[in-house]
């Protein structure tokens, strides 16, 4: 049997539903942990109609476009097509995580997990429909390709947390195989490990037979997806010191009173490692409030800058005739972009947007003047007034 891979550290996604969330609302949040020098942009794309069967270029491959796509707001690494996290006009939110397991990761370019995030948001008006969109695309096109703007390969399988005004779904993949868990109340989080155990509400039709063929499951004992498809000790998932456990504890600490402000503080927590520092760090964050009353608008907050402790969460609401988000949109390079040339990633252009540059300048001031956390909090509040 192959040895377990080194434990990765990046990304956490959270959801709280009533009664864990305060009021009749769903609260969603994610920290995107990526290479420290990578720029994350926030952009809004309008709803659109498309010719039947038109080709759609994603990060590496083309897929068949659908006739109608919904308006979306995305937070994404500026070099790729997809998104780390985002929301659509119908109040569907998706965040993804890198996961590893027993199944080898192929080298061929296919759909990135981040491409699947955007495709799910553009094509589905409920969380469960987004799940169906993602697994159908996974079956047809597969997942794969370098997930980092570098000639050094960084590849992984993907998990997703998908939420809407009524419910949430956790979708976890291993190659083309997958399992999904429905969340109708309370709290749930995902990190860089498989976390679906025996509560499986939807699954790939060959999920169990494939596990038996690989010798991972004997077909007799209760089927535990995470234990079967990865090296996770599922009995200790919520008691170990891993990122999944730390996120689980922070959510449960505030269970019953989780608001957007509480979710932001969870994302800013450095002691737990949720707010990452170092070579991989939190480069963008998102919090969404999804009222269960459909007459109330969903509110989505994005940083568009690294380190949520030093960032302002800016609100976004879908309204008619939204103007482009110029200050958080990175420059584009067309066919000259090194991502689109072969061999890829030979150079790395300056992708910083206006807000990112201003955040860099502010960060230097904070470092040189040793601004306290209290002062940073006061500055954030002042900027929001």
Automatic annotation (TrEMBL):
Pfam families: Peptidase_C69. GO terms for biological process: proteolysis. Transmembrane segments: none annotated. Residues 330-350 are annotated as: Disordered. It comes from the Eukaryota. GO terms for molecular function: cysteine-type exopeptidase activity; dipeptidase activity. Belongs to the peptidase C69 family. Secernin subfamily. This is Secernin 3.
């Amino acid at each position: 049997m192959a040895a377990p891979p080194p434990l990765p550290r990046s990304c956490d996604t959270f959801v709280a539903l009533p009664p864990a969330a305060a009021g009749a609302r769903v609260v969603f949040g994610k920290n995107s942990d990526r290479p420290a020098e990578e720029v994350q942009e926030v952009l809004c794309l309008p709803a659109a109609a498309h010719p039947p069967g038109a080709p759609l270029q994603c990060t590496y491959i083309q897929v068949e476009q659908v006739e109608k796509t919904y308006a979306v707001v995305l937070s994404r690494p500026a070099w790729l097509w997809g998104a780390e996290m985002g929301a659509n006009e119908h109040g569907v939110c998706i965040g993804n995580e890198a996961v590893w397991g027993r199944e080898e990761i192929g080298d061929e370019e296919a759909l990135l997990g981040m491409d699947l995030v955007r495709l799910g948001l553009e094509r589905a008006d409920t969380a469960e429909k987004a799940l169906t969109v993602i697994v159908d695309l996974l079956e047809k096109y597969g997942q794969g390709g370098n997930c980092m703007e570098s000639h050094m390969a960084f590849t992984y399988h993907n998990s997703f947390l998908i939420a809407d005004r009524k419910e949430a779904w956790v979708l976890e993949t291993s190659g083309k195989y997958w399992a999904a868990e429905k969340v109708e109340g309370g709290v749930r989080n995902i990190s860089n490990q498989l976390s679906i155990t025996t509560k499986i509400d939807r699954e790939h039709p060959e999920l169990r037979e494939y596990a038996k063929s690989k010798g991972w499951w004997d077909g007799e004992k209760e089927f535990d997806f995470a234990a079967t498809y990865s090296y996770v000790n599922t009995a200790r998932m919520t008691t170990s010191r891993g990122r999944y456990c730390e996120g689980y504890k922070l959510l449960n600490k505030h269970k019953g009173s989780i608001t957007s402000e509480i979710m932001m503080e969870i994302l800013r927590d450095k002691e737990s490692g949720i707010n990452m520092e170092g070579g991989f760090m939190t480069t963008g964050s998102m919090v969404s409030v999804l009222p269960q009353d459909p007459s109330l608008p969903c509110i989505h907050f994005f940083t568009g800058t690294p380190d949520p402790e030093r960032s302002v969460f800016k609100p976004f609401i879908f309204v008619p005739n939204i103007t482009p988000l110029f200050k958080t949109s990175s420059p584009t390079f067309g066919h000259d972009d090194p991502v689109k040339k072969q061999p890829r990633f030979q150079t790395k252009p300056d992708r910083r947007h206006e807000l990112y540059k201003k955040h860099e300048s502010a960060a230097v001031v904070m470092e040189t003047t040793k601004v306290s956390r209290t002062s940073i909090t006061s500055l954030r509040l002042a900027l929001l007034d």
